[in-house]
Specification:
Elements: H1 35-41, H2 54-62, E1 75-80, H3 84-99, E2 103-105, E3 113-118, H4 123-138, E4 142-147, H5 148-152, E5 163-165, H6 173-181, E6 187-188, E7 193-194, E8 197-198, E9 215-219, E10 221-222, H7 233-237, E11 241-242, H8 245-257, E12 262-266, H9 281-289, E13 297-300, H10 305-308, H11 312-319, E14 327-329, H12 337-343, H13 349-362, E15 367-374, H14 381-394, E16 398-403, H15 420-434, E17 447-455, E18 462-465, E19 471-474, E20 484-492, E21 497-501, H16 526-538, H17 547-588
Parallel strand pairs: 1-2, 1-3, 3-4, 4-5, 5-6, 9-12, 12-13, 14-15, 15-16, 19-21
Antiparallel strand pairs: 7-8, 10-11, 17-18, 17-20, 18-19, 20-21
Length: 589
């Protein structure tokens, strides 16, 4: 909490009152000059006119008073680490702040406040987060922290005195930022509940600024049903809480109306969706595909093996749908049942293989991505070799290899650790095996339909994805962006293919509306506009939802200052006139 400063009135010196005074004017002694004497002694004083620097004055008039802090006009830099769920939270926070008048900037040094949205999965991500806090403090930036790190461990020493917005409180980010700008420290870490039941989180219809205007990230639930011994995210996101199907469908509809052509469904475990509200993932997906426009695509996020096993038949049908990518991310983490038991993963390697084999059989060409942790406590050389054999057998085209990092407060951190050198060696060995095969060489010469949504990191190509969510690089022709294009594959690499657009092929536009401009706020519903108006009326001098209203706010402040200055000058002038008039009357009387 910010320290409150109180002005203590000084004790006035006492005067000895030995003599009774009939009137205050009796205090004036005989030696003191009379008012009229002082007045006439100044008759030859000529006031000096002070010249005003008009340019500088006008510039100062445009600035708020130096002794006041006006939320809603500052520049904010937002940095997000971690998963697509975290990125979605970052987009929502940016949208709300921009709607209230703040300027979201990509220039960190130019910002007045840094909003740091953290990830707690691995040590390096938290290290980057901690270093960013230190840098912000060195540069005297205001700081608001978000994400899983402060939610899971808000009492860490390096977080002391800093404002925190909890993962379920992102709809209140404007309040936290406003108070932080005023110099206060605010922490909102509670959970959303309805009649005692935990909700999925903040509302889905809040404004947001999509990092990519063509891609909408929808969090279908938060938390999970597992208790993995290495996972810190559970401490932050908690147990499973799913959003209702109708809210998710409405969010998808709104996205398509704003020019989105690709939807990502995300959560800590999409396969567990609905188990807390009497629904299921297939039930949600069948409702969503009904509202996806032709040519637009849906990508399903990560699901753990236990919760997809009971839906295999339905999932295979859904992944066959022409508007759903034939892609699924199923983390195995280890191919050793002994290690999986220590991890408390609640499945065995045979379960994982059953899921993968079934989907590969029913959905030919499907892309299965997976994760592996190297060097989990207690992992023997034999355990690791079983994992190596699994990779060699399935040749996963997308494989996320992670060296184990013990996260504070997790059971795995208290287990006997594998030596650091052994962990590094195993990570290196598995990476070598992964890079020993080429998953896309056999696709050279194929003709594919691809959806173009991004630009490559080197800015030389546009990035598209085919039916199996495999990355295809295409020429940077602006007409392709956001379109479904037919290409011939002529080259392949480890993580991509290159496609040449077919000369006589039709470029198809899946979007039903023109996409929003980059940085434009999405989801400004009438209800939110009303809430915005109420907020602006209740908070003194707060800027409004767009640049015009922000300018109007500054104009109001300027007029208020001019009015205040004018009133002050008039008051002083009238007072001086009254004194002079009284003195003249007294002199001539």
């Amino acid at each position: 909490m910010a320290k409150r400063h109180f002005r203590v009135a000084e004790k006035m010196p006492s005067a000895s009152c030995d003599t009774f005074l009939d009137d205050i004017e009796d205090i004036v002694s005989q030696e003191d000059s009379k008012p009229q004497d002082r007045h006439f002694s100044r008759k030859h004083v000529v006031p000096k006119v002070r010249r005003r620097n008009t340019q500088k004055y006008l510039q100062e008039e445009n600035r708020p008073p130096s002794d006041s802090t006006i939320p809603g006009i500052q520049k904010i830099w937002i940095r997000t680490w971690g998963c697509s769920h975290n990125n979605s939270d970052g987009e929502y926070m940016a949208g709300q702040l921009a709607a209230y008048g703040y300027k979201i900037t990509e220039n960190a040094s130019d910002a007045d406040l840094w909003l740091l949205n953290s990830c707690t999965v691995k040590n390096p991500a938290e290290d980057h987060f901690r270093n960013s806090i230190k840098k912000a403090q060195e540069e005297n930036k205001k700081i608001v922290l978000a994400g899983c790190v402060p939610q899971a461990q808000p009492r860490q020493d390096y977080l002391k005195g800093l404002s925190i917005i909890g993962v379920q409180q992102i709809d209140r980010v404007v309040e936290v930022v406003e108070e932080t700008i005023k110099g206060h420290s605010v922490r909102l870490l509670g959970q959303k509940k309805d009649n005692g039941k935990r909700l999925g989180g903040a509302r889905l219809d809040l404004p947001k600024i999509r990092k990519n205007p063509l891609i909408e990230i929808i969090s279908i639930n938060t938390g999970c049903l597992n208790a993995c011994t290495y996972c810190k995210t559970k401490h932050a996101r908690g147990n499973l809480a799913s959003y209702p199907i109708d809210e998710l469908v409405d969010r998808a509809k709104q996205s398509f109306q704003e020019g989105v052509c690709e939807i990502w469904l995300t959560s800590e475990d999409t396969g567990a969706y609905g188990r807390d509200i009497g629904s299921s993932l297939p039930a949600l997906l069948w409702k969503l595909v009904e509202v996806i426009p032709e040519g637009a695509m849906l990508r399903l996020g990560m699901t753990n093996p236990p919760y997809i096993l009971e839906h295999l038949e339905e999932m295979a049908k859904i992944l066959h749908h022409p508007r759903v990518y034939a892609f699924l991310h199923i983390p195995v983490q280890s191919a050793s049942d002994a290690v999986l038991m220590e991890m408390k993963r609640e499945y065995c390697v045979a379960d994982f293989k059953r899921v993968v084999d079934f989907l590969k059989d029913k959905v030919p060409g499907i892309t299965i991505a997976t994760d592996i942790i190297c060097g989990f406590p207690g992992e023997t050389d034999q355990d690791f070799q079983e994992t190596v054999k699994l990779v060699e057998e399935y040749k996963f085209p997308s494989l996320f290899i992670n060296q184990f990092y013990p996260r504070p407060g997790t059971p795995a951190a208290k287990m006997e650790q594998v030596p650091a050198q052994v962990k590094k060696q195993r990570t290196k060995e598995l990476s070598r095996i992964f890079h020993s095969y080429s998953p896309y060489d056999h696709k050279i010469g194929q003709r594919q339909q691809v959806l173009v949504t991004e630009e490559s990191f080197d800015s030389k190509f546009y990035v598209a994805h085919n039916r199996f969510y495999e990355q295809v690089l295409v020429p940077k022709n602006p007409i392709f962006m956001g379109k479904m294009v037919e290409v011939d594959i002529y080259e392949s690499g480890k993580h991509f293919m290159k496609g040449q657009p077919v000369s006589d092929a039709k470029v198809y536009t899946p979007s039903i509306s023109k996409p929003l401009a980059r940085g434009e706020v999405s989801g400004l519903t009438e209800e939110f506009r009303n809430r915005l108006g109420n907020h602006l009326n209740s908070v003194s001098h707060t800027s409004a939802a767009n640049q015009r209203v922000s300018a109007s706010s500054r104009m109001v402040l300027r007029l208020q200052r001019l009015h205040r200055d004018f009133a002050l000058k008039m008051s002083v002038g009238l007072a001086v006139f009254a004194i002079l008039f009284a003195l003249l009357v007294k002199v001539y009387n």
